Amino acid sequence: MGSLRSASSETQGSTAKGDIMNGKVVIVGSMNQDLTTYAPSLPSPGQTILGSDFIITAGGKGANQAVAATSIGVVDKRRGVHMIGRVGDDDMGIGLVRGLQSRGIKLNDNEVRVVGAHTGVASINVDTTSGQNTIVVAPGANLALGKDDVESSLMEILGCSDGHEKECGRDVVLVQLEIAPETALQTLITSSKLGALTILNPAPAPKGWDLTDEWYSAIDILIPNETELAAICCLSNRDDVTGEGEEAMAKALLEKGVRHAVIVTLGARGAMIVMRDKSQSAPSKNRIDSFRTIMISEPPDLPCKSELVVDTVGAGDAFCGALAAYLSRGIHLEKAASMACGVASMSVRKRGAQESYPRAEDLPGCLRIENVPTGDGVVESKMRTRKTITFVTGNKNKLAEVQRLLSTSSSNDEQLFIPFDIDNHQLDLPELQGSPSDIAREKCQMASLQLKTAVITEDTCLCFHGLNGLPGPYIKWFLDGLGHDGLNKLLQGFDDKTAYAQTIIAFSPGPDKEVRLFEGKTEGWIVPARGSNDFGWDPIFEPTEDEQGSGSRKTYAEMTRDEKNAISHRGRAFHKFREYLLSDSENIFNAIV
């Protein structure tokens, strides 16, 4: 009954010690023929428009994810990427199977074809202006894949019956919902029993379908997009959901029993991971305060970031397939998700789905697995062995930015992730007076005592040289009372319009332990406001660095995020903190409460 050839014999008796962490990737899902039309806009109901181009390509969420997983060359070739699915006994089906096999994906072309059913077809319309798309799928033979089929195939691929079980690594099984829901559920249940890491991408969520307890108990990682998340949580209008609402819904799914993490894909914004706290990896304790949230984006040094988005078709599949591949090599979840975001980002710069996925030779250094620290391939083990540092803030955007800063190299070297997790907690600490360093140290001590854990606090000053350092740490109140124009007027009558911006990061590994300070400073000028007003006093501060005069220089508010972080006081402070965490991680780990 198995639809795939067994690959277990390929590795039996030949597993080297260094290969133990390498698992197989099994994709269970759809294989479709994609019929894609490109047009300058998407038609409204009842409207007919002329397209500018048309292509016929291989697709289907399952096949797309299998191609993404194998193309980047991450999965151990002896373990392989395996595909379980069905096509019709027609020319389209024959072509799809041969195409997958030509890429090295393992499947049995004799058992995969279904007599009397047409191969699945997806009709895709792409807006060439925005890159957005609409898709209608006629599943055809995909729905012929049954529960018994996947159970026998998974047993054949993942079963280890000759005493070599411990050498089989952590296999990853990824399934979507372009096949029958009951078949997808059986995939998760069987894979879980066989010890694989199970991932459900609930796309597209069928009408009337609901996640029940038997689903939750078999899902390690759930990966919906924003629309699918709202549908799973029974919200009719996705537009009513805020970022905080998305986080709350993801936590609710963990409360219901998803075993390790919910990853919400956010398009150009990357992804949000909501996962169980390291001490709560088992679903028996589902308190919402035992979960933590991490915002993820592509590596900051990804070369294609400045290129135009051409076509978003298949980007979510690129993320899912790449994530499965990276996890099969023991890379911890946060790092794997960031690299998967990078693969998806590369894919949207080209037309098509499978045709747009990068190959191993195309990957920049930040997406390659060489020298990437690995765990044991098990998400929950990483969660138990990594300790958490709490950033004292209630601002989720600040948390996301700090997580990004701490995972970023200041040079062009490959990205290195700190060996700690960063979460956040809001505290109402009293306003203190004194020097910036004294204020930072005392606030950190107070926060650590209240939270009884390792904490970091951040204090920022804007100091005018002409006013002997004022407003300094009181800049928030000066800005609230005077605004940008008022801050400029403070320097009327002074020839010296220079200033410096300063951030002090204070870190304590626990209550009553030594507080370390990390200072970042940037010299600049106070100028009339230019740029966005979204970030405090950024519009009036123009960094000078070592150059004299303003010329055509930008204010903080006129800079891109990466431009600002490269020279900003905040970026410099967090860079020093990050270097400290990397250089003395073992002692810090042991000191953290």
From TrEMBL:
One of its GO terms (cellular component) is cytoplasm. Mg(2+) binds at E431, D459. The keyword Cell membrane does not apply. Keywords: ATP-binding, Carbohydrate metabolism, Cytoplasm, Hydrolase, Kinase, Magnesium, Manganese, Metal-binding, Nucleotide metabolism, Nucleotide-binding, Nucleus, Potassium, Transferase. Pathway: Carbohydrate metabolism; D-ribose degradation; D-ribose 5-phosphate from beta-D-ribopyranose: step 2/2. Activated by a monovalent cation that binds near, but not in, the active site. The most likely occupant of the site in vivo is potassium. Ion binding induces a conformational change that may alter substrate affinity. ATP binds at N225, T265, L266, G267, A268, R269, G270, G316, D317. Its EC number is 3.6.1.66, 2.7.1.15. GO terms for molecular function: ATP binding; dITP diphosphatase activity; ITP diphosphatase activity; metal ion binding; ribokinase activity; XTP diphosphatase activity. The active site is at D317 (proton acceptor). Residues 24-284, 303-358 form the Carbohydrate kinase PfkB domain. K(+) binds at D311, V313, S347, K350, G352, S356. It catalyses: XTP + H2O = XMP + diphosphate + H(+); D-ribose + ATP = D-ribose 5-phosphate + ADP + H(+); dITP + H2O = dIMP + diphosphate + H(+); ITP + H2O = IMP + diphosphate + H(+). The keyword Magnesium applies. It is found in: Cytoplasm; Nucleus. Substrate binds at N32, Q33, D34, G60, K61, G62, A63, N64, E178, D317. Transmembrane segments: none annotated. Pfam families: Ham1p_like (PF01725), PfkB (PF00294). Belongs to the carbohydrate kinase PfkB family. Ribokinase subfamily. This is Multifunctional fusion protein. It comes from Stephanodiscus triporus.
